[in-house]
Automatic annotation (TrEMBL), chain A:
Keyword Ribonucleoprotein annotated: no
Similarity field: Belongs to the metaxin family.
Lineage, top ranks: Eukaryota, Metazoa, Ecdysozoa, Arthropoda, Hexapoda
InterPro entries, alphabetized: Glutathione-S-Trfase_C_sf (IPR036282), Glutathione_S-Trfase (IPR040079), Metaxin_GST (IPR033468), Mito_Protein_Transport_Metaxin (IPR050931), Sam37/metaxin_N (IPR019564)
Keywords, ordered alphabetically: Membrane, Mitochondrion, Mitochondrion outer membrane, Protein transport, Transport
Pfam family membership, one: Tom37
PANTHER family xref list: METAXIN RELATED (PTHR12289), METAXIN-2 (PTHR12289:SF38)
Protein name: Metaxin-2
Automatic annotation (TrEMBL), chain B:
Record region (Disordered): 1-22
Keywords tagged on the record: Membrane, Transmembrane, Transmembrane beta strand
Superkingdom field: Eukaryota
Signal peptide: none
InterPro entries named in the record: Bac_surfAg_D15 (IPR000184), D15-like (IPR039910)
Residue stretches making up the Bacterial surface antigen (D15) domain: 134-455
Major subcellular site: mitochondrion
Protein name: Bacterial surface antigen (D15) domain-containing protein
Length: 260, 456
């Protein structure tokens, strides 16, 4: 669950003397059959970060990627002896190895960066979880099949139900289950407007060069544009803000020209 | 659990001396059992009890009658319906040689609860249980058990048993279970939830078979951030649906400190009736005991197991299906389940293993405590050897698998004291000298403590 605490460092001491391992693996579920929309966004965000920071990695598809993850969040990055997950974990690991994208920011910009990342996590992250698991149409026609795809009968039936229960409990503690789809839709719209205003006519959120926030936002927006849910066109919301679309195209062209 | 109450009963060689001084050999006194009465039956059905007393009618002499009466008594006790069983043998009025046997039984209550302690593989556990014995009057029972182990093992079981009796001594049971099994030697934890159907019968005397089906949803989880990646990458959910056949031939005279007899145990498991795992697994154990002069007993034991994945699917099994070797119950002088491939501090297990042991058991020296508390102790000297690795004995590489299994085997010798706890468990305190090992093996040179049921 993307919450504020997820932005805090996990309690591992990284050995900063060792450089970034060239054979690092980004472990993700099988993209063609398993990956769900919120997972796809998180994976793409992490890939964007790694590409922007020019850290070498290979993508490895594993059916049990979620369970391999230390906190059951995606994606998982294995770098030497370390296994970290989510964009935050990867950012911290990179930082320990001396690679960071936001060093040039001043203190107030850094606070901004953190605030916006938390906003994107809390609104877009939970909204995608909400649509994938709480919306009956989407669950029945999309989520259920993908969540069970890695297993044979009977887990093919049990696992989607089991995961749904877990996710809904999480959403419930954040009071998200009481909202209607329209409310969530509206909330996404507000968040996108805020992002669009912050971005303005700049290339990246903090000016000339991309930061962790750019990677994170790209992951969500690009996924929303390219992954149609059965009954929702989240992409249309993004398309209301031409500067966000332009931003996505720019990041994709600049940092994903070979890998996508 | 069927606690082995194998008390050997000898035919009484009784010679009665009536008051007039003339002795009567009870072996020659003719007897005709005319009537067997069981007092105290209320909800237990007659037909269920009467099959246990049939053999009384075959008694011909008085000694035979006394012997059979006590055999039947223990049979009645084993039915699990009675709290206690008393015998009265009386003459019958109708004919001169006629006898009547009367059993006074007290039925156990409708609800039995209790707190017990249990011993497993080097861990103790607390069992909270309740039982509904003899529900329908023919020995049917339901058990509910919750076990908390010292290694933070946890398990809950709900079992329904229906004895079928007959000459095969069969019974059928269904169990629902939920286990949490942490494996600290490999830093993972398995949660499994499922059902077990078991059909048990005896095909010959002392040859017991269990035919089982097990369906279990297993969730393997790395138990900490320090868990090595080789173990972590196996985490996840899987459903195992397997058929299992267990055959136990036990001709030993005592389950813990046998002095003669052979034990053979074969376990075959086929996993792959649906579900996510597919393998065949064999495990076998052979133990022979040879009595020697001066109350010495020579014991030889051999175990062998192999797991063969069944297809090329990427996840046909996980680490919890594999074999582990080492520790005070198998190859002494090494850490618990530590042998074979390792990654960091985690044992990775193996697809095949063998282990053997030769023990020389002696009573306590100088006849100390003989016939009393000394029966709870044995001293022993042992030699242990074994090996485990990842070869799965496919037909193509059979010879090579064999060689790798024999090459680089681990071995140790030592002396120690074994203590029997009841009829089931045992404690061993050994001084071990591992003398064949490989680099990276975790040795226990010196004192090693073992606690458990199954010892090699």
């Amino acid at each position: 669950m993307p919450t504020a605490t997820a932005l805090m460092p996990p309690d591992i001491d990284f050995d900063s003397k060792e450089p970034w391992a060239a054979d690092s693996e980004l472990i993700i579920p099988v993209e063609s059959t398993q990956v769900l929309i919120h997972e796809s966004a998180a994976i793409l965000g992490a890939q964007a970060f790694l590409n922007i920071a020019r850290l070498p990695y290979t993508v490895k598809e594993r059916k049990n990627a979620t369970e391999i993850s230390p906190n059951h969040k995606l994606p998982v990055l294995r770098c030497g002896a370390y296994v970290v997950s989510e964009l935050e974990g990867i950012v911290q690991l990179a930082q320990a190895k001396g690679v960071t994208l936001s060093d040039y920011l001043n203190a107030s910009e850094k606070a901004d960066l953190r605030a916006y990342m938390s906003l994107v996590h809390n609104v877009l992250g939970n909204a995608l979880l909400f649509f994938a698991w709480n919306d009956n149409d989407v669950y029945e026609n999309y989520t259920k099949f993908r969540a069970g795809a890695a297993y044979n009968y009977p887990l093919r039936v049990i696992m989607p139900w089991h995961t749904r229960r877990k996710v809904l409990t999480q959403l419930k503690t954040l009071n998200w289950t009481e909202r209607t789809s329209e409310e969530v839709y509206h909330e996404v719209e507000t968040c996108l407007t805020a992002l669009s205003e912050r971005l303005g006519e700049l290339d990246f959120f903090f000016g000339e060069s991309p930061t962790e926030l750019d990677a994170l936002v790209f992951g969500y927006l690009f996924t929303m544009i390219t992954t149609p849910l059965p009954n929702r066109q989240l992409g249309n919301l993004v398309k209301h803000s031409p500067n966000l679309v332009k931003f996505c195209q720019h990041v994709e062209k600049e940092y994903f020209s070979q890998s996508i | 659990m069927g606690a082995g109450q194998a008390k050997t009963r000898k035919q009484p060689q009784g010679v009665a001396k009536p008051s007039d001084g003339v002795s009567i050999d009870l072996d020659t006194v003719p007897v005709r059992v005319e009537n067997v009465r069981i007092n105290g039956l209320s909800r237990t059905k007659d037909d269920y009890v009467s099959q246990s007393v049939q053999e009384l009618f075959k008694a011909n002499t008085f000694n035979e009658l006394v012997f059979k009466a006590s055999v039947v008594q223990s049979k009645l006790e084993k039915l699990g319906c009675f709290r206690d069983v008393g015998i009265i043998i009386d003459v019958s009025n109708s004919s001169p040689d006629g006898y009547e046997v009367i059993y006074n039984v007290r039925e156990s209550g409708r609800f039995v609860g209790g707190v017990n302690t249990m011993i497993g593989a080097n861990e103790g556990s607390l069992v909270l249980g309740c039982r509904l014995p003899n529900i329908l009057g023919r020995g049917e029972r339901i058990n509910l058990e919750h076990t908390i182990g010292s290694d933070s093992n946890k398990s809950s079981l709900l079992t329904a048993v229906k004895p079928l009796g007959g000459s095969w001594n069969a019974d059928i049971s269904a169990t629902l279970f939920h286990h949490k099994n942490p494996a600290y030697w490999s830093s993972y934890t398995v949660f499994s939830t499922g059902a077990l159907l078991d059909f048990a019968f005896e095909s010959a005397q002392k040859v017991r078979h269990n035919m089982q089906w097990e369906g279990a949803w297993r969730q393997l989880e790395a138990s900490s951030r320090q868990t090595s990646f080789a173990v972590r990458e196996q985490s996840g959910h899987s459903f195992k649906s397997s058929l299992r056949h267990i055959m136990t031939v036990d001709h030993r005279d005592h389950p813990i400190f046998p002095s003669s007899g052979v034990l053979l145990r074969l376990v075959q498991e086929y996993a792959g009736l649906g579900g996510d795992v597919a393998f065949v697994k064999h495990d076998s154990e052979l133990q022979a005991n040879i009595p020697l002069p001066h109350n010495l007993v020579l014991q030889g034991a051999l175990r062998f197991g192999v797991l063969r994945p069944l297809d090329a699917r990427d996840s046909t099994h996980n680490i919890s299906d594999l074999f582990f070797l080492g520790g005070p119950q198998t190859v002494r002088g090494f850490e618990m389940r530590s042998l074979g491939a390792r990654s960091g501090s985690d044992a990775l297990g193996g697809k095949a293993y063998w282990a053997s042991a030769v023990h020389l058991y002696m009573p306590l020296p100088f006849g100390f405590g003989r016939g009393s508390f000394g029966e709870y102790f044995r001293t022993h000297a042992f030699v242990n050897a074994g090996n485990i690795n990842d070869s799965s004995f496919n037909t193509e590489d059979f010879a090579q698998s064999f060689q790798t299994m024999l090459k680089d085997f681990r071995a140790s010798y030592g002396i120690g004291l074994a203590i029997r706890l009841g009829q089931l468990a045992r404690i061993e305190i050994n001084y071990c000298w591992p003398f064949r090992f490989s680099k990276g093996d975790r040795l226990v040179r010196g004192v090693q403590l073992g606690l458990g049921i199954d010892f090699l």
